[in-house]
Design goal:
With 472 residues, the chain is α+β, with helices and mostly antiparallel strands. The protein contains 17 helices and 22 strands. The chain has a seven-stranded mixed sheet. The chain has a five-stranded parallel sheet with strand order 12-2-1-16-22, with helices on one face. The chain is globular and about 70 Å long.
């Protein structure tokens, strides 16, 4: 019988545990113990029900084009619970000079693929529009070294595109800065497109033509979620695991390589395992693995993280009627607000709010505003309500029916310049420690599907080393 320790009970660790549980159920001689330092499993996937509304504390969805989360949901019996975003309602605004300006049609992430909507958009200056036109003639260019997203975007479209689109978009996804995040790690497709095509716009059109589905096939929604919220995924996973193998409120201090196995030290107890999967944020993995390999610990510790705060406000039907259509808005830093973005949840997904309720979800924090975590909930609500009045005109006397504030300290990995080279060093050092695997959002993607894949692959790697896993 082989014994595997899994450290971390977020979606990465749960995915690893489910992969091993499937093997155990099929008769493979393997056992596992999952250690989670907090009292609950699921990490940032937390869903609350308030006043008939579904409130997400962490991620509210995942990208449909990344299949791993949806595939796992189908495996655990949630296939009929998957829902898509209301893309017929999809419209996103940028706050520019104090006003909401619609992002022009044809923008794929931040790359213009349609000329006329961009030309007539009031979002960009004439100078930027001329840069966009000239971008179609960029020659192929293979970068000799890694660079920031801001450097690449500015080279193609100018600084205004960085300020109005690249920075707000990356703040919303990574809580990071375009001037610090690595193109190769965050937008590898862009780096590849530039090397092959030169122009990002032409490359996007080529890719869209190749992927083009027949007109009779409806386009897939951009985002996927679950009818009862993202925690539904956690609850279904936990229900399929061996309850005796799940140890919550169990903080692991260290793991040590000993006698062809591993000693896991948690509290006053030490347990022996044949292998360990560390499925925690990289800075936690750094501390846990300090005694196992100082060099590995150092490299893991150099992966930076930013913090975030999500605030959800529920309003009545009057406020709902006053809000603009669409999914929400992004706020460039130059506008001087602390709110980074807001989602009109009642528009984005079905099953989130009754017809007589508005659900507005705001995001704060990120790499430039770690201080927001030191503010009280009342202070944060005062900031958010004041800025919503300024940005979308919610009346001063429009009291929210309810409000929820969630703080997530050091939760979002920052893939800075040199991240891929750091990952190569980490993998090289890991390979010298048989029976160790790493999983989580610190390595090859921060979204829910990336974490599912990370945990699944980590479990497969360990089972493969034990001769219990076939690629077939």
């Amino acid at each position: 019988m082989k014994h595997i320790a899994i450290i971390g009970g977020g979606i990465s660790g749960l995915s690893a545990a489910f992969t091993i549980e499937e093997k155990r159920q099929s008769g493979t001689s393997v056992q596992y113990v999952l250690f989670e330092s907090s009292p609950r499993l699921g990490g940032v996937l937390v869903t609350d029900r308030v006043d008939g509304c579904l409130v997400e504390a962490g991620p509210d969805s995942f990208l449909t084009e990344k299949p791993w989360a949806a595939d796992l949901c189908r495996k655990i019996g949630l296939g009929d619970q998957l829902i898509g975003s209301n893309d017929s309602e999809r419209k996103t605004y940028i706050v520019a000079r104090g006003k909401l300006v619609v992002m022009p049609d044809g923008l794929m992430f931040m790359v213009p693929t349609k000329i006329m909507p961009t030309v007539f958009s009031p979002l960009f200056s004439l100078r930027t529009k001329m840069r966009m036109a000239a971008e179609w003639f960029h020659p192929p260019r293979k970068a000799s070294e890694d660079e920031t997203v801001a450097e690449m975007v500015e080279r193609h479209y100018g600084p205004e595109m960085v300020e109005l689109l690249a920075d707000p978009l990356l703040s919303g996804v990574y809580g990071g800065l375009a001037s610090e995040l690595s193109v190769r790690a965050v937008l590898p497709r862009f780096a590849d497109m530039e090397s092959k095509h030169g122009s990002l716009g032409r490359a996007m059109l080529e890719a869209r033509k190749k992927m083009g589905a027949p007109a009779s096939v409806p386009a897939r929604p951009l985002f996927t979620s679950l009818k009862e919220g993202m925690q539904q995924m956690v609850d279904a996973l936990v229900a399929r695991l061996d309850a005796n193998s799940l140890k919550t409120s169990s903080l692991v201090q260290s793991v040590i390589r000993q006698d062809n196995g591993w000693t896991v030290c948690a509290g006053y107890q030490s347990d022996q395992f044949d292998a360990v999967i560390v499925a925690t944020p990289a800075h936690v993995a750094s501390a846990v693995l300090q005694a196992a390999d100082e060099n590995l610990s150092r490299d893991l510790g150099e992966i930076a993280y930013s913090s975030s705060v999500t605030v959800t406000l529920g309003y009545d039907e009057k406020v709902r009627r006053s809000l603009p259509p669409g999914f929400g808005f992004l706020v460039p830093r130059s506008e001087g607000h602390r709110v980074l973005a807001a989602t009109f949840v009642h528009n984005k997904f079905p099953h989130r709010a009754p017809e007589n309720r508005a659900l507005v979800r705001c995001f704060l924090g990120g790499a430039r505003d770690e201080e927001i975590l030191d503010s009280s909930e009342d202070q944060i609500l005062e900031i958010v309500r004041g800025e919503l009045r300024q940005i979308i005109g919610i009346a001063l006397d429009a009291e929210p029916l309810f409000a929820r504030v969630y703080k997530w300290k050091s939760s979002m990995a920052q893939y800075s310049v040199g991240h891929l080279e750091r990952l190569q060093r980490i993998e090289s050092l890991r390979q010298k420690l048989p029976g160790l695997a790493l999983a989580g959002n610190g390595y090859n993607g921060i979204g829910v599907p990336d974490c599912v894949r990370s945990g699944t692959e980590a479990a497969g790697k360990i089972l493969g080393e034990m001769g219990m896993w076939s690629s077939a």
